[in-house]
């Protein structure tokens, strides 16, 4: 019996929940905005400019009208109560002071009938109160559930609208892409094949880069070896010049020819290895050397020697800073070791390495 009653109550609650949902949906679709109108009505204040000639401000302002209506309702209720009280008193007095023949006869049956009628009305009122209490209880119980369902439905609706907008944006973007890239378009198979070809090509290029780096390394080693050889030849040239000065050879001495040939060959070798374009002895202790780095770039090294000791005293460079080579530390290091040949070889190798890295 209890199970049947619980089932009936659940069905009744479901029906009421469905009715509440339908009513809420109708209210949302009706767009009544009662709270907004009530707030506007309560806070509205009529401007004096809106009044016509002879009209009172109190008859136009809704807030004042609402206050007057509330006061009038309260006054009418009091007036009704006073009327009922006076009517009852009047009937009671008339029933007492009037003649017995004219007075209404109230018997015990009438009192019992009225008592039964009152009991019946009390029973109906009790049933109505119980029903009202049950309805209020159901409302208090179901209201949070309805609110949760409403929030979920609202969130789902907002998400559906958001997803619909995203779908529309995606379709528009796809339409733009199709207009931008007409047929024939790149298919997945063609794209994968193109990617495979690009991977193969990148691997081949990487192998070529490794091979070129190895060749560059070998060439640098050869250049370094050639620089050392040139330095040895330069030392020999210096010693030969000293020997010539010591011997005081004459211009027509036959021993100058081999020395000249040797010097020419050394200079030619130096030019071929280091791309020496121009050498100029500015003074007795200053030598200006210009080298070709690339087809459009040159660099100049000015070697300044001490007049007495013939040791390297200072170095000036032109064109190395433009290719990104810092020559300060290199110059100081080689001035301390008195190594002009190593200085020139290192400067040229750094400059050419920087140019190779840029390319």
TrEMBL record:
Residue ranges the record marks as coiled coil: 10-40, 111-138, 188-222
List the keywords (alphabetical): Coiled coil
Question: GO biological process: what's one of them?
Answer: attachment of mitotic spindle microtubules to kinetochore
A Pfam cross-reference name: Sos7
Q: Where is the Kinetochore protein Sos7 coiled-coil domain?
A: 75-150
What are its GO cellular component terms? Answer: kinetochore
Q: Cross-referenced PANTHER family, in alphabetical order?
A: KINETOCHORE PROTEIN SOS7
Question: What name goes with this protein?
Answer: Kinetochore protein Sos7 coiled-coil domain-containing protein
